[in-house]
Amino acid sequence: MSLSAAAPDLSQVPEPDRPREAALGVKLGMLALLAVLCLVPFLFVLTISFGHKIEGGGWSFGFETTQYKRFFLGATWPETFQDLYLQKLGYSLWFAAIGSLVAVMLAFPFTYYLTRLGKRGQTVWLVVLLSSLSLSEVFIVMGWDILLSARSGLPALLDGIGFTGLMKDLGWFQWFRDIGLASPRAFKFKTSGFATVLCMSYLVWPYAVILLYPALSRLDPALIEAARTMGARPRKVISTVVLPSVRLPLFGAALLLFVFLLGTYVTVSVFADPSQHTLAVSIYDSVRGSTLNAPFGAAQSVILLITAGLFLFAGQTLSKAGGK
């Protein structure tokens, strides 16, 4: 028997599945990172929400549902029922919904025509949009604060060009007063829901463009060309070809921006009327503001987070149903 015949055939021995082990290690690492960044802070906030408030801003461990009862039933329950914090949650949902819808509605036509440009034009615009994301919310709000100020902003401009006087002469100025956009003498955008939604929409508009860009850039030009060949006008092409093709990305972008805007603090605190302040402002007041009630701030944070999660779950369910 020769040595070559006695030696085992190494080519038949299975090698260790190193790529699979590496992939498993990456997954475990990602799960650990997710737990550290998301799960641990959430559990910490959840623990504080059931804690006992100590006068002076402190708290101690415990299991009290006092803060949740205060949120849903009011501080004076069971004598009286108060829905103050439910109203704040409602304003959070209202402003976030309108702001996200306006941002997506404005971003859609811009993104559509952006994808019709040449590669160089698209690159320039995308670089500009990505650069705008470096601006903080405080910086953006400060800019809009100046633009909407009564003395140096848009109200002064409308007064200077005679638009305010024209509205008064036509008798339409009272309508702007009725919706809270004018004082007895001139236009007034601070504080108002209009200014709040305008600034929130501007804040997330670049994100809307970036979210819609992949779907619109992958849109088959042959479909649009076929519709035009059959005599469809541009508006008909948009409503019957483009919009149905990107309905899910549109819905997903609006949902993500909605969740993002739920936590907007600076915009609401500057432009919204104090009676319409959202839950994010109330959370800050509880944790760092005048009330110094960390368990109540944590309870509001948990409720806001659960609300966002429910909307994301509902959106995912609707997306799956719509994609079938």
Automatic annotation (TrEMBL):
> Which keywords annotate this record?
Cell membrane, Membrane, Transmembrane, Transmembrane helix, Transport
Gene3D superfamilies, per the entry = MetI-like (1.10.3720.10)
Q: Where are the transmembrane segments?
A: 28-50, 91-112, 124-144, 194-216, 237-262, 294-314
Q: Name one GO cellular component term.
A: plasma membrane
Location in or out of the cell? Cell membrane
Q: Please tell me whether the keyword Membrane is annotated for this protein.
A: yes
The gene name reads potB_5
Q: InterPro entries of this UniProt entry?
A: MetI-like, MetI-like_sf
This one is known as Spermidine/putrescine transport system permease protein PotB
Q: Which organism is it from?
A: Pseudooceanicola algae
Claim: Metal-binding is one of the keywords in the record: no
Topology in the lipid bilayer: Multi-pass membrane protein
Q: What does the sequence similarity comment in the record state about its family?
A: Belongs to the binding-protein-dependent transport system permease family. CysTW subfamily.
The main location class comes to membrane
Q: Which domain of life is it from?
A: Bacteria
List the PROSITE patterns hit by this protein, alphabetically. Answer: ABC_TM1
An example GO BP is: transmembrane transport
